[in-house]
Amino acid sequence: MNGLSLGEKLFVQGGIAQDLRSDGRKRLTYRPIYVETGVIPQANGSARVRMGGTDVIASVKAEIGRPSPLQPNKGKVSIYVDCSPTAAPVFEGRGAEELSTELSVALQRCLLGGKSGAGAGIDLSSLIVVEGKVCWDLYIDGLVVSSDGNLLDALGAAIKAALSNTGIPRVHVAAEASGEDQPELDISDEEFLQFDTSEVPVIVTLTKVGRHYIVDATLDEESEMSSALSVSINRKGLICGLTKRGGAGLDPSVVLDMISVAKHVSEQLTDRLDSEISAAEAVEEE
Amino acid sequence: MEYVSPEGLRIDGRRPMEMRKLQAEIGVVAKADGSAVFEMGNTKVIAAVYGPREVQNRSQQLNDQALVRCEYSMANFSTGDRMRKPKGDRRSTEISLVIRQTMEACILTQLMPRSQIDIYVQVLQADGGTRSACINAATLALADAGIPMRDFVTSCSAGYLNSTPLLDLNYVEDSAGGPDVTIGILPKLDKVTLLQVPSDRIICQAFFMS
Amino acid sequence: MAGGASATAPSTYSPSPNQKKKPPLFKDGDLDWVRPDGREFHQCRPAFFRTGAVNAAAGSAYAEFGNTKVIVSVFGPRESKKAMMYSDMGRLNCNVSYTTFATAVRGQVLDQKESSSMLHKALEGAIRLETFPKTTVDVFALVLESGGSDLPVVISCASLALADAGIMLYDLVTAVSVSCLGPNLVIDPISEEESYQDGSLMITCMPSRYEVTQLTITGEWSSARINEAMQLCLDACSKLGKVMRSCLKEAASASEES
């Protein structure tokens, strides 16, 4: 998909082997991250994250819904990602479907935790209004506007920023309905509940090129990868999700080593992202 | 419903002949040959141009001029209610066609035979006048890509409500059901390239351009 | 892992998850808790494999792990579609589908797209795609009955079907998942256990090369825990590999005789 000549390929590989990449970064350095919040006023929360040539937007919309009968004390969250053809002509028509599904699934796995809700970045029980009857459905939409590699990390960061920007209207239950009836609701348009996003994990993708792994790979570097491991790690240093891309097999010891490197990188990334998000929130409030 | 107050102010506080705040930026998509963001009030669209480049599908190649293609898509979060429509529904196909024809008319296609120019327009926020905003964004992106054009295409919509002609309708005014018209002109050449009136509405006398 | 013997226990109807109460013993960390089907925590269900289940296909395999029953057929390599660009590597096309009666609730939609892409990702690293340029291999998996750990069973079964079809492989691909239930790690979980799990880890690997082709984790895990679960899975994978290998050998010797 990315037509590199043999010389360019060797240049990318050689740079990574010598810990000096084509754009002057070291193997474990991220590109500068820019966060902008509140970019979509119609949504409950939104954010735009830019990392070099990668530009993604995430929005959070909350709608009143019914909890699933299997989990009456939990709200529902769904994540969809769309890749705009503006990012690359191959995304035209149905061309983006495969990548979009892959990204959506990876984000769901990394952010929504296990079946019982352990390790979820979003506290689903905070979305409940009336147990078993009314809850908030959160729709998280990601849009890739411009793509230069490392989409998953950027989307993860954008969702984290969008969630911290999200205000869910406070709901007053007017009359407690009995039996099967749906209770009457009074949705406040002044009071908003803020999300606690400190538990939302960050996603670190380690791309293996040759014998080394790099973070925040550009499109050129991704085309040279043998495999990549995306690890989502929360503030406590616990792994909340993991997906692997690329066909090449990895030795189990390499996998464990990559996880520990990702853990180390995530500490810096979490801090940097948090400060960027709070800076962006401060700018928006002005 | 009252769309124009007795004092002559519209719902969002504008005068009938006033446009919304315009904002534009070029070079927003790193990998594209040309790109632009165009905002008209709350309507925000992004356009990216790829090309002129080799024709991808040989059977579509034109030997005397460039092939211009366009795809219009709306983000899931662009409208008030979250929508999840499959790509390529009738409305977006129609708008893609409108944009393509309008832009094709102003690009000097005969200078680039056997090549292809792709215009991708993505609506980030829709608040009325998406067609106009898309055309304006596409023009900027084409200019940013350095594609030879006869002139800029500028576009705007107008409508007629409460016996007042209104310029640059927002979503509420657009959905009020009054007659409305979208026109695109080439300002230097002083020619109209696009004139659209929805078939179910009766046009009266709204011809005002920025 | 119990050997290649077929599942002898009568397949009882499994109650739907919402009717069953979560065993209270979890919280006490009591290790005496028994799994619904009476297995130990680190004991897999008996695995049964048989190749050549579908006559029309180039290769096929049937797998039965407890209540999970899967059939995979492989077609090709055949000419890639005309619309596809020239490629000097072969293509792999995977599709996983469920029968309408696979789950306790009829027609319950499971994410088949996701399973299909997972199957693709697990297999692509093991197939020598360069041996069949310009062509496509289709892998169609059908889950006849879903009894938990569907995807690992599908993946193992698919690699067996590929081997049966004579597609060049570096190694068989075996897959095993573990569920994290409270303090316990439970290998090869059944549906009920999966619906209560706090987290899951699935490894697909090539046992004789000792390489991981695919790894997914959900839920909250510490590094030590991941290490433990991975060792458990890898060990089970290598044993499962032996079972699959013996199944292939059996099929080969049977065809020689006839």
Automatic annotation (TrEMBL), chain A:
Question: Where does it mainly reside?
Answer: cytoplasm
Subcellular localization, per the record? Cytoplasm; Nucleus, Nucleolus
GO cellular component labels = cytoplasm; exosome (RNase complex); nucleolus
Q: Name the source's superkingdom.
A: Eukaryota
- Record bears the keyword Cytoplasm: yes
Q: Which SUPFAM superfamilies match?
A: Ribonuclease PH domain 2-like, Ribosomal protein S5 domain 2-like
Q: Which UniProt keywords apply?
A: Cytoplasm, Exosome
Would the keyword Cell inner membrane turn up in this protein's UniProt record?
no
Q: Which residues form the Exoribonuclease phosphorolytic domain?
A: 30-169, 200-263
The text of the family note is: Belongs to the RNase PH family.
Q: What protein does this entry describe?
A: Ribosomal RNA-processing protein 42
UniProtKB/TrEMBL annotation, chain B:
Q: What PANTHER family does its record include? A: EXOSOME COMPLEX COMPONENT, EXOSOME COMPLEX COMPONENT RRP41
What is stated as this protein's family in its record?
A: Belongs to the RNase PH family.
Gene3D superfamilies attached here? GHMP Kinase, N-terminal domain
Q: Which InterPro entries match?
A: ExoRNase_PH_dom1, ExoRNase_PH_dom2, PNPase/RNase_PH_dom_sf, Ribosomal_Su5_D2-typ_SF, RNase_PH
In Swiss-Prot or TrEMBL terms, this protein is called: Uncharacterized protein
The Exoribonuclease phosphorolytic domain extends over: 18-148, 151-196
Keyword Transcription found: no
Question: Mostly located where?
Answer: cytoplasm
The reply to whether Cytoplasm figures as a keyword in the UniProt entry is yes
Annotated GO biological processes are: gene expression; nuclear RNA surveillance; nuclear-transcribed mRNA catabolic process
**CC per GO annotation:** cytoplasm; exosome (RNase complex); nucleolus
Subcellular location, record wording: Cytoplasm; Nucleus, Nucleolus
Its keywords, alphabetically, are: Cytoplasm, Exosome
Read off the CDD domains from this record.
RNase_PH_RRP41
TrEMBL record, chain C:
Locate the compositionally biased regions of type Low complexity.
1-17
* Cellular component per GO, a single term: nucleolus
Quote the InterPro entries the UniProt record gives.
Answer: ExoRNase_PH_dom1, ExoRNase_PH_dom2, ExoRNase_PH_dom2_sf, PNPase/RNase_PH_dom_sf, Ribosomal_Su5_D2-typ_SF, RNase_PH
- Where does the Exoribonuclease phosphorolytic domain lie? 43-167, 171-232
Can you name one GO molecular function term for this protein? 3'-5' exonuclease activity
Per the record, the major location class is cytoplasm
Q: What are the boundaries of the region Disordered?
A: 1-29
Localization: Cytoplasm; Nucleus
Report the Gene3D superfamilies cross-referenced here.
GHMP Kinase, N-terminal domain
GO BP terms: namely: nuclear mRNA surveillance; poly(A)-dependent snoRNA 3'-end processing; rRNA catabolic process; rRNA processing; seed germination; U4 snRNA 3'-end processing
Keywords, comma-separated and alphabetical: Cytoplasm, Exosome, Nucleus, RNA-binding, rRNA processing
Which interval of the chain is the signal sequence?
Answer: none
* SUPFAM superfamilies to which the protein is assigned, alphabetical: Ribonuclease PH domain 2-like (SSF55666), Ribosomal protein S5 domain 2-like (SSF54211)
Q: Which PANTHER family match?
A: EXOSOME COMPLEX COMPONENT (PTHR11953), EXOSOME COMPLEX COMPONENT MTR3 (PTHR11953:SF2)
Could you say which protein family the record assigns here? Belongs to the RNase PH family.
Protein name, UniProt field: Uncharacterized protein
Which species is listed as the source?
Answer: Eucalyptus grandis
